[in-house]
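We include the entry.

. . .
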Amino acid sequence: MSPLLFLDVDGPLIPFGASPRRLPDGYPTYRTTPSDPAADAHPLLARVNPAHGPRLVALGCTLVWATTWTDDANDSVAPRLGLPALPVVHWPDSDEPQTHPGLHWKTPSLITWAAGRPFVWLDDELTEADRAWVSATHPAPALLHRVDAHHGLTEADFAAVEEWLREA
């Protein structure tokens, strides 16, 4: 069974937050057509690099949306990447008290969803606390890889995942 790859949208696939000094030419955009209704409705969608879809598939993992976009990721993001509809992690009600203070709020749900399978998690908000907790509580190998939200997924991110997958 292939490892899971939990994929966040905002940050890894839609870069944001860089100052003009860091990206003097702004963010690259990728419009699917000259008149791109989805990008017109949500302008940040134009930052989704369609080349990431084939790269993600080539990793050989089972791709899973782990994003606040939930099912909307299949409607708005997957087609831009050339991906089919993916499984979606559905989050607990935000009114529930956090049972693991100090962890990213997604972490416990992803451990449950993984159900003991190896996984990669690409997100821009991961911390050492998440890595330590996953290492202590998850029985299979896991790579929690933080993506710089200012740049989104880069060649270095793909290389880190590929290396981990070879060694896992």
Remarks:
- The first helix runs from residue 37 to 41.
